[in-house]
Design goal:
12 helices; globular; three-stranded antiparallel sheet; Phosphorylase Kinase, domain 1; alpha+beta; single chain; 392 residues
C-alpha cells in the first residue's frame, strides 16, 4: 500500500483561504476564518464557530435580514462537511485558485530574510516614506523595492501593526486570474501571516507623475493594448480599482495595471464590473494624467494655469485617440456605455481647455483666490467668541 504524501502547510492554507473566499457568504464569517488561518491549517478544519461581539442580523427563511443574533452568541461559521464538499467539487489542489495561492505562499520563503530586514527598517511608521526603497503608498499598505538575485521586486507592506489576511487574499485571488496576462501586475510570493505580497516591478511610473512630453509620446498601439488588457480583465473575472495611482505608463512598455482583485467573492453584494464601464473609466484617468496627487491650494499663478493647459491639451488628444480605438474594438451596448462616459469626460476637458485659454477667466480665478486668502487671514486675527450675546 502506497503512503499518502502529506499536504504542505501552504497548500492547506490555500485550500482554506479559497473556501473562505468563494463559499462563505458573510464577510464577518470569512474574516473569522482568515484571522484564524494559521491555527486552522495546523489543527485541521472541523466545524468552525464564532462568538458574536455585537448583535448581528441574519436572513430568515424568507431571505429577509431580520433574524437577530444577540451579542455573546456562539454560532456556526462553517462546517467540515461544507469544506470537504467544496474541495471535492473543485478538484482539490488541482483547482487553479488553490494551486495558484499555494505556489505564491510556497515562494515566500525565498524572500523572507530580505523582507524581515526591510520590515525592521520600517519599524517607525512616521519615516517610512523617507526609506530609500519607498515606491508608493496606498490606504492599506506601502510599497518598497527589494533585490533578490538579479531581479528587483515590489513588496507591499501593511501600514500599521494590523495585518488583514482578507486584504492579502483579495490580491492573491486576483493574481491567480491575472497570471501571465501582459500589462497586469504579477504577484510571485505572499504571506498571510506577515501581510506581505511580492510582485514583479511594474515598468514606468504612475500616470499622475508623467511629463507633458511623455503624455504626447503615448502611441495608438499602446492605447490599443490598454483596451485589450481591459478586455482580458473582464473575461477573466478580474476587478480593477480605477484610480490614477493604479495605472502605470512606460514609454517602451506602455500601460500597466496594479492592485486588482477577483470578482469571485462570495461575501460581495455588488455586481461584477462591466466591460463598457471599466473602459469608460479610463477616460477619466487619462484626463487626470499628470495631475493626480498634485495640489496648488490657493497659490495658483498664471504660470501654473499655463502649465496645466499644456497637460489638458495633451490629455485631450490622447483621450480622443483612445475613443477612436475603443469604438473600433468594442461593439453593441459595451461600446455605447464606454463612449458615453468618454464623451462626458471629453466635454469636461474641452471646457477646461477653453477656460484655461481665456486670460480673463484665469485672472478672475486668481483674484478670487487672493480675496479668499485675505478674508481667511482677517478671520484668523479676530478673537475667539467665548459666548453668544442675544440682541433685540
Amino acid at each position: 500500500m502506497s503512503e499518502t504524501t502529506p499536504k504542505s502547510p501552504e497548500l492547506i492554507q490555500a485550500q482554506i483561504a479559497t473556501f473562505a473566499a468563494e463559499r462563505v457568504e458573510r464577510y464577518q464569517d470569512s474574516g473569522h476564518i482568515f484571522n484564524n488561518l494559521g491555527s486552522l491549517a495546523v489543527e485541521g478544519v472541523s466545524d468552525i464557530t464564532s462568538t458574536t461581539t455585537s448583535a448581528e442580523y441574519h436572513n430568515d427563511e424568507n431571505g429577509d435580514n431580520s433574524l437577530r443574533v444577540p451579542e455573546g452568541t456562539e454560532r456556526s461559521v462553517a462546517t467540515s462537511a461544507e469544506y470537504t464538499d467544496f474541495l471535492r467539487s473543485v478538484g482539490g489542489s488541482r483547482y487553479e485558485a488553490i494551486r495558484g495561492r499555494a505556489d505564491m505562499l510556497q515562494a515566500y520563503g525565498r524572500f523572507e530574510p530580505t523582507i524581515a530586514r526591510l520590515r525592521t527598517e520600517l519599524a517607525d511608521l512616521a519615516t517610512r516614506k523617507q526609506h530609500p526603497n519607498f515606491l508608493g503608498n496606498g490606504s492599506n499598505a506601502a510599497v518598497f523595492s527589494i533585490e533578490e538575485g538579479d531581479n528587483k521586486y515590489a513588496v507591499r507592506v501593511p501600514n500599521g501593526k494590523g495585518i488583514n489576511p482578507v486584504v492579502i487574499d483579495s490580491h492573491l485571488a486576483g493574481a491567480v486570474l491575472g497570471r501571465g496576462v501582459p500589462h497586469l501586475e504579477q504577484i510571485v510570493a505572499a504571506s498571510y501571516k506577515d501581510g506581505v505580497t511580492v510582485a514583479e516591478v511594474m515598468p514606468g511610473k504612475e500616470v499622475g507623475g508623467l511629463t507633458v512630453d511623455e503624455v504626447k509620446g503615448i502611441s495608438d498601439d499602446q492605447l490599443g493594448e490598454l483596451v485589450d488588457t481591459l478586455m482580458a480583465v473582464n473575461q477573466r473575472g478580474i476587478e480593477i480599482d480605477p484610480k490614477p495611482s493604479n495605472l502605470f505608463y512606460d514609454p517602451a512598455e506602455g500601460y500597466g495595471i496594479v492592485d486588482y482583485h477577483s470578482s469571485k467573492d462570495a461575501s460581495k453584494d455588488s455586481k461584477d464590473q462591466e466591460l463598457g464601464e471599466i473602459v469608460g473609466w479610463m477616460g477619466m484617468i487619462i484626463d487626470n494624467t499628470g495631475f493626480y496627487g498634485k495640489t496648488y491650494g490657493s497659490d495658483k499663478t498664471i504660470e501654473d494655469y499655463a502649465h496645466d493647459l499644456e497637460y489638458k491639451k495633451a490629455n485631450f488628444d490622447v483621450m480622443n485617440r483612445y475613443r477612436a480605438i475603443v469604438k473600433s474594438k468594442l461593439g453593441g451596448e459595451e461600446q455605447q456605455n464606454a463612449l458615453t462616459q468618454i464623451d462626458k469626460q471629453l466635454q469636461v476637458s474641452q471646457e477646461a481647455i477653453d477656460n484655461y485659454s481665456n486670460p480673463q477667466w484665469v485672472t478672475e480665478c486668481i483674484a478670487r483666490d487672493e480675496e479668499w486668502k485675505r478674508q481667511t487671514a482677517e478671520q484668523a486675527k479676530k478673537p475667539a467668541i467665548e459666548g453668544w450675546i442675544l440682541t433685540v
